[in-house]
Amino acid sequence: MKLADGLAAERSDPEQPGEPQAHLASRRTAYALLALLTLVWGMNWAAMKAALIHADPLVFNVDRTWLAVVVLFAVLVARGGPFRPRNLRGIVVTGFFQTTINFGATTLAVAGGGAGRTSVLVFTMPFWTILIARFVLHERVRGLQRAAIACAFAGLLLVVAPWSWQGGDFGAKLWAVLSGFGWAAGTVAMKHYQRAPDFDMLNFVAWQTLVGVLPLTLLPYAFDVPATQWSASQVLLLLYVGVISTAVGFLVWMSILRVLPAGTASLNMFAIPVIALLSSMAIFGEELAGNEWAGIALIGAGLALVTAAALLPGARRPLPNSLPS
């Protein structure tokens, strides 16, 4: 699988019989892209933290999302092909969860004081994805995946340490969990709607981002927010978050979902909070407590189990790419 394959209008089916080598190569490429995307999204939290020093969270989130919209539509126009939205219902549903709820809830979590370790709660997303995908996409949870979920969930609990939350942080943490739910629902919705024969991923992603950002654009007008303090470094941070992480990241993520089951792909996202915490240590001098180190170790063990499950004989084929009639 190449990114260009995901941007093409025609639909590829990695499960065609007689193409085991191509299918295996596609899965290996998808895992390689997933690893790269995990690194980009992990570093994105440090970039956002640095950018929010000189920008209000509400304004910065709208700026980076509109920048992503501009980039996505520029690529859409340059590529040619269909421009008008082709599945308005799917675009509205996905945009509501993936962009409005996900980005909006993250913004409110940060605005409420949850810009630090509480942002890790966004990565309850894999649990929501597995739950939603079980009923919507009929993706089964297999043996080693259950152990991986247990390890990763225990690790996430140790990292966020909910038993030590202060009362003032509770609302921000709930917004972060809601962001994870929105991300998961948007992921499953995208995987559901991309099964249409005439599905065009670039068209769909661009339009759902545009539709989803419209309600977010109104948020800064509801609050008295300060103006952004612009500088060269602030522009670079906005470009990283808006172009690389948001626009290109969305395209790579959806390309990955064309090959890998949503539950399997989302479990690998547990590495993102680990990268976010380690990068914060290196850049901002933050220190990790003993429970956080133990949590990182458990999350790493869960990721190892996910990898082992993917490599076992009989586990190389993803679940069917179509819903039952």
Which features does this protein show?
single chain, 325 residues, mainly alpha, 12 helices, globular, disordered N terminus, disordered C terminus
Topology diagram in text:
Blueprint: H1 3-7, H2 20-51, H3 57-79, H4 88-111, H5 125-136, H6 143-160, H7 170-193, H8 201-222, H9 232-257, H10 262-267, H11 271-284, H12 290-311
Helix pairs in contact: 2-9, 2-11, 3-8, 3-9, 4-7, 4-8, 5-7, 6-12
Describe this structure in words.
The structure is a single chain. Helices cover 70% and strands 0% of the residues. The chain is mainly alpha-helical and 325 residues long. The protein has one domain. The two termini are 27 Å apart.
Can you give me a brief rundown of this structure?
The chain is an all-alpha fold and 325 residues long. It is 70% helix and 0% strand. It has helices at 3-7, 20-51, 57-79, 88-111, 125-136, 143-160, 170-193, 201-222, 232-257, 262-267, 271-284, 290-311.
The string of secondary-structure elements, in order, is: HHHHHHHHHHHH
The rounded Rg comes to 19 Å
Could you tell me the strand content as a percent range?
A: under 5%
Structure annotation, total helices: 12
Oligomer: single chain
- Helix amount, in percent? over 70%
Q: Are there runs of 5+ residues with pLDDT below 50, and where?
A: 1-19, 316-325
Strand runs, count: 0
Number of domains: 1
Instruction: Calculate the terminal CA-CA distance, rounded to whole Å.
Output: 27 Å
Task: Name the overall outline.
Answer: globular
User: What would you call the structural class?
Assistant: mainly alpha
Give the rounded overall mean pLDDT.
Answer: 78
Sheet with the most strands?
none
